[in-house]
Protein backbone atom coordinates (compact mmCIF):
# COMPACT_ATOMS: atom_id res chain seq x y z
CA UNK A 1 0.00 0.00 0.00
CA UNK A 2 1.32 3.41 -0.92
CA UNK A 3 0.66 5.68 2.01
CA UNK A 4 2.71 8.66 0.96
CA UNK A 5 -0.45 10.55 0.00
CA UNK A 6 -2.12 9.68 3.31
CA UNK A 7 0.42 10.97 5.71
CA UNK A 8 -0.60 14.59 5.89
CA UNK A 9 -1.20 16.10 9.29
CA UNK A 10 -4.95 16.40 8.66
CA UNK A 11 -5.31 12.80 7.51
CA UNK A 12 -3.64 11.64 10.70
CA UNK A 13 -5.81 13.92 12.82
CA UNK A 14 -8.97 12.48 11.27
CA UNK A 15 -7.81 8.88 11.74
CA UNK A 16 -6.84 9.62 15.34
CA UNK A 17 -10.24 11.17 16.14
CA UNK A 18 -12.11 8.28 14.56
CA UNK A 19 -9.98 5.82 16.56
CA UNK A 20 -11.08 7.53 19.77
CA UNK A 21 -14.73 6.74 18.98
CA UNK A 22 -17.03 6.45 15.98
CA UNK A 23 -17.77 9.99 14.86
CA UNK A 24 -19.78 11.91 12.30
CA UNK A 25 -18.13 14.21 9.78
CA UNK A 26 -19.61 17.22 11.58
CA UNK A 27 -18.11 16.33 14.95
CA UNK A 28 -14.73 15.61 13.31
CA UNK A 29 -14.82 19.09 11.75
CA UNK A 30 -15.61 20.61 15.13
CA UNK A 31 -12.92 18.73 17.06
CA UNK A 32 -10.21 19.09 14.43
CA UNK A 33 -11.04 22.73 13.76
CA UNK A 34 -11.43 22.04 10.03
CA UNK A 35 -14.16 23.12 7.64
CA UNK A 36 -16.89 20.53 6.87
CA UNK A 37 -15.80 20.65 3.21
CA UNK A 38 -12.20 19.81 4.12
CA UNK A 39 -13.35 16.94 6.33
CA UNK A 40 -15.59 15.55 3.57
CA UNK A 41 -12.63 15.51 1.18
CA UNK A 42 -10.28 13.87 3.66
CA UNK A 43 -12.89 11.29 4.65
CA UNK A 44 -13.63 10.46 1.03
CA UNK A 45 -9.92 9.88 0.43
CA UNK A 46 -9.54 7.70 3.52
CA UNK A 47 -12.62 5.66 2.57
CA UNK A 48 -11.31 5.08 -0.95
CA UNK A 49 -7.94 4.05 0.54
CA UNK A 50 -9.85 1.45 2.56
CA UNK A 51 -8.90 2.88 5.96
CA UNK A 52 -12.30 4.24 7.04
CA UNK A 53 -15.82 2.86 6.67
CA UNK A 54 -19.28 4.18 7.42
CA UNK A 55 -21.26 2.61 10.17
CA UNK A 56 -24.92 2.96 11.26
CA UNK A 57 -26.85 6.20 11.25
CA UNK A 58 -26.72 8.53 14.24
CA UNK A 59 -29.63 10.96 14.53
CA UNK A 60 -28.49 14.33 15.80
CA UNK A 61 -31.53 16.00 17.31
CA UNK A 62 -35.00 15.83 15.77
CA UNK A 63 -34.32 17.93 12.69
CA UNK A 64 -32.20 17.33 9.66
CA UNK A 65 -31.19 14.05 8.06
CA UNK A 66 -29.49 11.34 10.14
CA UNK A 67 -25.69 11.57 10.22
CA UNK A 68 -23.68 8.50 9.44
CA UNK A 69 -20.71 7.94 11.68
CA UNK A 70 -17.29 6.61 10.73
CA UNK A 71 -15.04 3.90 12.07
CA UNK A 72 -11.64 2.47 11.21
CA UNK A 73 -11.83 -0.28 8.58
CA UNK A 74 -9.99 -2.96 10.59
CA UNK A 75 -8.88 -4.91 7.53
CA UNK A 76 -7.79 -1.80 5.63
CA UNK A 77 -4.14 -2.15 6.63
CA UNK A 78 -1.89 -4.49 8.58
CA UNK A 79 1.51 -4.37 10.24
CA UNK A 80 3.81 -6.98 11.72
CA UNK A 81 5.57 -6.68 15.05
CA UNK A 82 8.46 -8.91 16.15
CA UNK A 83 10.26 -9.35 19.45
CA UNK A 84 13.77 -10.78 19.31
CA UNK A 85 14.16 -12.08 22.87
CA UNK A 86 17.28 -13.84 24.16
CA UNK A 87 15.84 -17.31 23.46
CA UNK A 88 12.83 -16.93 21.17
CA UNK A 89 11.18 -14.89 18.42
CA UNK A 90 7.58 -13.69 18.77
CA UNK A 91 5.67 -12.24 15.84
CA UNK A 92 2.18 -10.72 15.69
CA UNK A 93 0.13 -9.41 12.79
CA UNK A 94 -1.97 -6.35 13.72
CA UNK A 95 -4.94 -4.89 11.88
CA UNK A 96 -5.60 -1.16 11.48
CA UNK A 97 -7.20 -0.98 14.94
CA UNK A 98 -4.05 -2.45 16.52
CA UNK A 99 -5.77 -5.76 17.34
CA UNK A 100 -3.82 -8.99 16.98
CA UNK A 101 -5.07 -11.05 14.03
CA UNK A 102 -2.44 -13.79 14.31
CA UNK A 103 0.63 -14.57 16.35
CA UNK A 104 3.50 -17.04 16.37
CA UNK A 105 6.44 -17.91 18.57
CA UNK A 106 9.53 -19.88 17.52
CA UNK A 107 12.59 -20.82 19.59
CA UNK A 108 15.93 -19.28 18.62
CA UNK A 109 19.06 -21.47 18.84
CA UNK A 110 21.75 -20.73 21.44
CA UNK A 111 24.19 -18.03 20.20
CA UNK A 112 21.79 -17.21 17.34
CA UNK A 113 23.02 -14.85 14.61
CA UNK A 114 21.19 -12.04 12.77
CA UNK A 115 20.81 -14.45 9.84
CA UNK A 116 19.10 -16.99 12.13
CA UNK A 117 16.59 -14.31 13.13
CA UNK A 118 15.86 -13.29 9.53
CA UNK A 119 15.47 -16.95 8.49
CA UNK A 120 12.99 -17.46 11.34
CA UNK A 121 11.10 -14.27 10.47
CA UNK A 122 10.69 -14.80 6.75
CA UNK A 123 8.09 -17.62 6.79
CA UNK A 124 6.03 -15.77 9.42
CA UNK A 125 5.48 -12.67 7.26
CA UNK A 126 2.77 -12.84 4.57
CA UNK A 127 3.31 -9.90 2.23
CA UNK A 128 0.45 -8.22 0.39
CA UNK A 129 -0.33 -4.65 -0.59
CA UNK A 130 -2.13 -3.97 2.69
CA UNK A 131 0.97 -4.64 4.82
CA UNK A 132 2.56 -1.36 5.87
CA UNK A 133 5.74 -2.72 7.37
CA UNK A 134 7.45 -4.54 10.21
CA UNK A 135 8.55 -3.24 13.60
CA UNK A 136 11.27 -5.12 15.49
CA UNK A 137 11.78 -4.84 19.25
CA UNK A 138 15.14 -5.94 20.65
CA UNK A 139 17.34 -5.23 23.69
CA UNK A 140 19.49 -2.10 23.65
CA UNK A 141 21.81 -0.48 23.09
CA UNK A 142 20.75 0.48 19.59
CA UNK A 143 20.32 3.51 17.38
CA UNK A 144 16.64 4.09 16.65
CA UNK A 145 17.35 6.36 13.67
CA UNK A 146 19.45 3.95 11.58
CA UNK A 147 18.36 0.65 13.14
CA UNK A 148 21.90 -0.47 14.05
CA UNK A 149 21.87 -2.69 17.14
CA UNK A 150 24.45 -3.99 19.68
CA UNK A 151 22.12 -5.71 22.14
CA UNK A 152 23.25 -6.70 25.63
CA UNK A 153 23.10 -10.43 26.22
CA UNK A 154 23.39 -11.46 22.54
CA UNK A 155 27.00 -12.59 22.03
CA UNK A 156 28.47 -11.66 18.67
CA UNK A 157 25.90 -8.95 17.94
CA UNK A 158 27.91 -5.78 17.57
CA UNK A 159 26.84 -2.86 15.35
CA UNK A 160 24.44 -5.09 13.37
CA UNK A 161 22.51 -3.06 10.72
CA UNK A 162 19.33 -4.98 11.55
CA UNK A 163 16.97 -2.51 9.89
CA UNK A 164 18.83 -2.59 6.57
CA UNK A 165 19.31 -6.38 6.67
CA UNK A 166 15.62 -7.01 7.41
CA UNK A 167 14.41 -4.54 4.78
CA UNK A 168 16.53 -6.22 2.13
CA UNK A 169 15.70 -9.79 3.12
CA UNK A 170 11.96 -9.35 3.71
CA UNK A 171 11.17 -6.66 1.13
CA UNK A 172 9.13 -4.29 3.32
CA UNK A 173 9.74 -1.15 5.40
CA UNK A 174 11.28 -1.96 8.80
CA UNK A 175 11.60 0.05 12.02
CA UNK A 176 13.79 -1.14 14.93
CA UNK A 177 13.44 0.04 18.54
CA UNK A 178 14.29 -1.07 22.05
CA UNK A 179 12.00 -3.74 23.49
CA UNK A 180 11.10 -1.45 26.40
CA UNK A 181 10.11 1.41 24.08
CA UNK A 182 7.88 -0.96 22.11
CA UNK A 183 6.34 -2.09 25.39
CA UNK A 184 5.45 1.39 26.60
CA UNK A 185 4.08 2.25 23.15
CA UNK A 186 1.70 -0.72 23.37
CA UNK A 187 0.47 0.49 26.75
CA UNK A 188 -0.01 4.04 25.47
CA UNK A 189 -2.11 2.72 22.58
CA UNK A 190 -4.49 0.99 25.00
CA UNK A 191 -5.28 4.11 27.06
CA UNK A 192 -3.88 7.61 27.49
CA UNK A 193 -0.50 7.87 29.22
CA UNK A 194 1.13 11.16 30.07
CA UNK A 195 4.22 10.82 32.29
CA UNK A 196 4.68 7.10 32.71
CA UNK A 197 7.32 4.41 33.01
CA UNK A 198 6.88 0.86 31.90
CA UNK A 199 9.10 -1.31 34.10
CA UNK A 200 10.23 -4.46 32.30
CA UNK A 201 11.57 -7.22 34.55
CA UNK A 202 12.43 -10.08 32.23
CA UNK A 203 15.70 -11.66 31.13
CA UNK A 204 17.06 -8.13 31.61
CA UNK A 205 15.74 -5.12 33.45
CA UNK A 206 14.81 -1.83 31.82
CA UNK A 207 12.18 0.87 31.55
CA UNK A 208 10.31 2.42 28.67
CA UNK A 209 9.74 6.10 29.37
CA UNK A 210 6.70 7.97 28.10
CA UNK A 211 7.13 11.64 28.97
CA UNK A 212 4.88 14.54 27.98
CA UNK A 213 2.82 12.18 25.84
CA UNK A 214 5.70 10.71 23.78
CA UNK A 215 8.24 7.89 23.94
CA UNK A 216 11.42 9.38 25.40
CA UNK A 217 14.48 7.86 23.70
CA UNK A 218 17.18 10.36 24.64
CA UNK A 219 19.92 11.82 22.44
CA UNK A 220 21.56 8.49 21.52
CA UNK A 221 18.47 6.24 21.90
CA UNK A 222 19.97 5.23 25.23
CA UNK A 223 17.25 6.33 27.65
CA UNK A 224 15.74 3.73 29.93
CA UNK A 225 18.86 1.79 30.96
CA UNK A 226 17.28 1.62 34.38
CA UNK A 227 18.79 -1.80 35.15
CA UNK A 228 22.29 -0.32 35.06
CA UNK A 229 21.80 2.52 37.49
CA UNK A 230 23.63 1.95 40.76
CA UNK A 231 21.61 1.15 43.85
CA UNK A 232 24.34 -0.37 46.10
CA UNK A 233 27.90 1.00 45.92
CA UNK A 234 29.57 -2.22 47.15
CA UNK A 235 26.98 -4.49 45.53
CA UNK A 236 27.50 -7.55 43.29
CA UNK A 237 29.35 -7.30 39.97
CA UNK A 238 27.03 -6.69 37.00
CA UNK A 239 27.19 -8.00 33.39
CA UNK A 240 27.97 -4.39 32.37
CA UNK A 241 31.20 -4.45 34.42
CA UNK A 242 30.11 -2.12 37.22
CA UNK A 243 29.01 -2.96 40.75
CA UNK A 244 25.64 -2.74 42.45
CA UNK A 245 23.45 -2.06 39.42
CA UNK A 246 19.72 -2.62 40.04
CA UNK A 247 19.82 -5.58 37.63
CA UNK A 248 22.69 -7.26 39.52
CA UNK A 249 21.23 -6.59 42.99
CA UNK A 250 17.82 -7.84 41.84
CA UNK A 251 19.36 -10.99 40.34
CA UNK A 252 21.21 -11.72 43.61
CA UNK A 253 18.00 -11.66 45.65
CA UNK A 254 14.75 -13.67 45.61
CA UNK A 255 11.08 -13.33 46.54
CA UNK A 256 10.10 -10.34 48.68
CA UNK A 257 13.66 -8.97 48.73
CA UNK A 258 13.82 -8.98 44.91
CA UNK A 259 10.51 -7.10 44.76
CA UNK A 260 11.78 -4.60 47.35
CA UNK A 261 14.84 -3.83 45.21
CA UNK A 262 12.56 -2.98 42.28
CA UNK A 263 10.23 -1.04 44.58
CA UNK A 264 13.06 1.16 45.88
CA UNK A 265 14.42 1.73 42.39
CA UNK A 266 10.99 2.63 40.98
CA UNK A 267 10.51 5.07 43.86
CA UNK A 268 13.75 6.80 42.80
CA UNK A 269 12.48 6.99 39.24
CA UNK A 270 9.12 8.46 40.28
CA UNK A 271 10.90 11.08 42.41
CA UNK A 272 13.31 11.95 39.63
CA UNK A 273 10.77 12.34 36.82
CA UNK A 274 7.55 13.11 38.73
CA UNK A 275 5.74 10.21 37.07
CA UNK A 276 2.05 9.57 37.58
CA UNK A 277 1.76 6.08 36.11
CA UNK A 278 3.82 2.90 36.43
CA UNK A 279 3.13 -0.23 34.39
CA UNK A 280 4.82 -3.46 35.44
CA UNK A 281 5.71 -6.12 32.87
CA UNK A 282 8.15 -8.90 31.96
CA UNK A 283 8.30 -12.60 32.80
CA UNK A 284 9.48 -12.14 36.40
CA UNK A 285 6.62 -9.78 37.26
CA UNK A 286 4.01 -11.82 35.40
CA UNK A 287 5.08 -14.88 37.44
CA UNK A 288 4.38 -13.11 40.77
CA UNK A 289 2.54 -9.81 40.16
CA UNK A 290 1.24 -9.33 43.72
CA UNK A 291 4.74 -9.56 45.16
CA UNK A 292 5.90 -6.62 43.02
CA UNK A 293 2.68 -4.59 43.25
CA UNK A 294 2.96 -4.46 47.05
CA UNK A 295 6.35 -2.70 46.86
CA UNK A 296 5.34 0.05 44.44
CA UNK A 297 5.17 3.76 45.33
CA UNK A 298 1.87 5.60 45.73
CA UNK A 299 1.09 6.46 42.09
CA UNK A 300 -1.23 4.74 39.60
CA UNK A 301 0.33 1.27 39.22
CA UNK A 302 -0.87 -1.53 36.94
CA UNK A 303 0.36 -4.80 35.47
CA UNK A 304 0.33 -5.07 31.68
CA UNK A 305 -2.66 -6.87 30.17
CA UNK A 306 -0.74 -7.83 27.02
CA UNK A 307 1.18 -10.69 28.69
CA UNK A 308 3.91 -12.12 26.46
CA UNK A 309 2.66 -10.20 23.43
CA UNK A 310 3.45 -6.77 24.87
CA UNK A 311 6.71 -6.15 22.98
CA UNK A 312 5.66 -7.56 19.58
CA UNK A 313 2.38 -5.58 19.69
CA UNK A 314 4.32 -2.39 20.48
CA UNK A 315 6.78 -3.17 17.68
CA UNK A 316 3.89 -3.43 15.23
CA UNK A 317 2.53 -0.13 16.53
CA UNK A 318 5.85 1.58 15.70
CA UNK A 319 4.77 1.24 12.09
CA UNK A 320 1.00 1.48 12.48
CA UNK A 321 1.32 4.58 14.66
CA UNK A 322 2.70 6.56 11.70
CA UNK A 323 -0.89 6.70 10.39
CA UNK A 324 -2.19 8.37 13.54
ZN1 LIG B 1 25.03 -3.05 35.18
Give descriptors for this structure.
324 residues, alpha/beta, Arc Repressor Mutant, subunit A, Nucleotidyltransferase, domain 5, 3 domains, five-stranded mixed β-sheet, 11 helices, 33% helix, globular, binds zinc ion
Layout of strands and helices, then pairs:
Layout: H1 9-19, E1 23-24, H2 25-32, H3 36-48, E2 52-58, E3 67-72, E4 78-84, E5 88-95, E6 100-107, H4 114-121, E7 131-138, E8 142-143, E9 148-149, H5 162-170, E10 174-178, H6 179-190, E11 196-201, E12 205-211, E13 214-215, H7 246-251, H8 255-273, E14 277-281, H9 283-287, H10 289-293, E15 300-303, H11 310-320
Parallel strand pairs: 4-7, 7-10, 11-14, 14-15
Antiparallel strand pairs: 1-3, 2-3, 4-5, 5-6, 8-9, 11-12, 12-13
Zinc ion is lined by residues 228, 238, 240, 242, 245, 247-248.
